[in-house]
Specification:
Order of helices and strands: HHEHEHEHEHEEEEEHHHEEHHEH
Helix content: 40-55%
Largest sheet: 7 strands, mixed
Strand order of the largest sheet: 1-9-8-5-4-2-3
Shape: globular
Bound molecules: pyridoxal-5'-phosphate
Strand content: 5-15%
Number of helices: 12
Radius of gyration: 21 Å
Structural class: alpha/beta
Number of strands: 12
Distance between the termini: 55 Å
Oligomer: single chain
């Protein structure tokens, strides 16, 4: 159904927010589509993290410095103590082998990120969680439609959070979701997003307002109709980019047994000078790119600048995401790749 028709239905009902029919319908559709059980829609991906952290009652956590500011920002705003641990230089994800014993003894939780939808080493992380009695909360903002070992990547960990922001694979303009392993956590989070109120509107928990509105859910419902088309086109574009650029740039090493959603096209340049040169030259050609994620969070005073994380710092300084969106054609990708190749060849001949 067209967005406008959803909107006129909403005004007909005069039910604009507070778990209305559009939110309910989108929840059911996403549960079926993603193959997940306890899914809670929220106002955005950052609030999804806040609510997930609060639901899990975590106080001390180990997280990755190679992520978007929201992962750490939500931890700090919730007064959760955090320590960074470095990522794997191939997968860009938190490396379970690098986490220090003393940090594992200290922490009550892990907050890894499935970067660009690439699955973390979920088995190794699960083993650490069992050995040290840790909750695992995955920031799975990039993982709509990503699969691992034959199921949704969102099914791993005690919970996983999604972003449904307009820049993500699937969106509701602003929006997010939390997928819980346990029903009890889902029920608790459902109260937290509605001021901590129970069904009799008694605030039995300290809560917030993280509800998704009907208008946002309506956008989700209209985009949902094209989600297969969007995802398969993006996957194909990603394959095309990889085929054309594999000799020219380093690429993220994808986990075996992972099905990608084609959300991003990250490339790793040789060094920051090369990246800056390429970024500027592409801009001169009208091609926009994004340094994502940059800078490395463990290098920032904002997040209590900590011990250098060499892999995260190196990746942050060299990563460039190339254009990736539904309206992009194979021809466009061919043109972009040719320009990238010629810029890089030029630059490399000079140095
Ligand atoms: C986009 C993003 C978020 C934040 O989601 P919003 O919906 O924009 O609030 C959190 N973590 C990561 C890794 C993201 O990429």
């Amino acid at each position: 159904m067209h967005y406008q028709s959803h909107i006129s239905d909403i005004f007909q009902r005069n039910w604009l927010t507070n778990n209305g029919p559009c939110v309910e319908m989108l929840t059911e559709k996403l549960k079926g589509y993603l193959g997940v059980e306890h899914l809670l829609l929220v106002a955005n991906g950052t609030l999804a993290l806040h609510v997930a952290y609060q639901t899990m009652s975590i106080t001390k956590t180990i997280t990755t410095p190679f992520t978007f500011a929201a992962t750490s920002g939500a931890l700090r705003l919730q007064n959760i103590q955090m320590r960074f641990s470095d990522v794997c230089d191939k997968t860009f994800n938190l490396d379970p082998k690098k986490v220090k014993e003393q940090d594992l003894e200290w922490a009550d939780s892990l907050v890894p990120v499935h970067v660009f939808g690439n699955p973390c080493d979920v088995n190794a992380i699960q083993s650490l969680a069992e050995k040290y009695n840790l909750k695992v909360i995955y920031d799975a903002a990039h993982c709509f439609g990503s699969e691992y070992q034959g199921q949704s990547l969102l099914n791993f960990g005690d919970c996983a959070t999604l972003s449904l922001h307009a820049t993500k694979m699937f969106h509701s303009v602003e929006g997010g979701a939390i997928i819980f392993k346990h029903q009890a956590d889902f029920e608790k989070a459902k109260k937290i997003i509605n001021f901590g109120q129970n069904q009799s509107q008694l605030p039995v928990l300290v809560g917030t307002n993280a509800k998704m509105s009907e208008m946002h859910a309506a956008m989700g419902l209209s985009v949902f109709e094209s989600v297969d088309l969007i995802m398969s086109h993006r996957r194909a574009l990603q394959q095309e980019y990889i085929k054309q650029l594999t000799e020219y740039v380093d690429l993220q090493e994808h986990a075996i047994g992972a099905e990608f959603n084609g959300a991003y096209m990250p490339t790793l340049l040789k060094n920051q000078d090369e990246l800056l040169y390429l970024k500027q030259k592409l801009e001169d050609n009208g091609i926009q790119t994004r340094r994502y994620f940059y800078p490395c969070l463990s290098d920032l005073d904002t997040y209590a600048k900590s011990v250098a994380m060499p892999n995260a710092r190196s990746i942050s300084s060299r990563i460039l995401c190339l254009p990736m969106y539904y309206d992009l054609s194979f021809e466009d990708v061919g043109i972009i790749c040719n320009i990238v190749k010629s810029i890089l060849t030029n630059f490399r001949q000079k140095v």
